[in-house]
Amino acid sequence: MGVSARRARSLQGAYVLKRGARAAGVCTCVAPNQLFNPTVTPSACPLAPEIIFMASQEKNESILAADAPERKKPSVYPEPFASRMQSRIKRPLGDLFGLTNFGVNLTTIAPSGVSALRHAHSKQDEFVYVVSGIATLVTNNGTSLLKAGMCAGFKAGNGNAHQIRNDSGEPLVYLEIGDRSAGDQVTYPDDDIAGSLVNGAWEFTHKDGTPY
To answer: What is the pTM of this model?
Structure first.
């Protein structure tokens, strides 16, 4: 069983439990971005064995989405496109729970930033839900605004290339969900790039097939 808050308070030193998934205890000597990594616990912490056990047991429970760690690599695009994603922060949520059939991200875009290059998937369905802020949705049909509480979906294979921009002066936060269909290919009508999902990883080339 997990360590109770009473037990934590009874211990001497600076090891104070924080409340985590389903009231699991995690000590302050564990970095926030390692909150659900059961292999990272300083050996000096007197709660180390119990914390490791709780982390492994609680890893698949609920969390506060905004507290999820940011994705380590801001973009999988090659340059010069990766640098255009610097105003975007993705917090992978599905990966924290071991989900493999589809991905879920909590994404924040700073003013003047974009979600991605405008693109269309051959096999991957996508869905977005605006949590806060105002999104400018760009598709083959033009632009439209998505406000908090609104959502949009993009069916695979129809060729409707899409992108989300933040043209407002406030941060934009939205949930994005997409499946991970093998053999997915992505087209980018506005840029000289093409993408393919190969063995679970994205590979990018120029439109003529030459690599970056």
So the answer is: 0.72
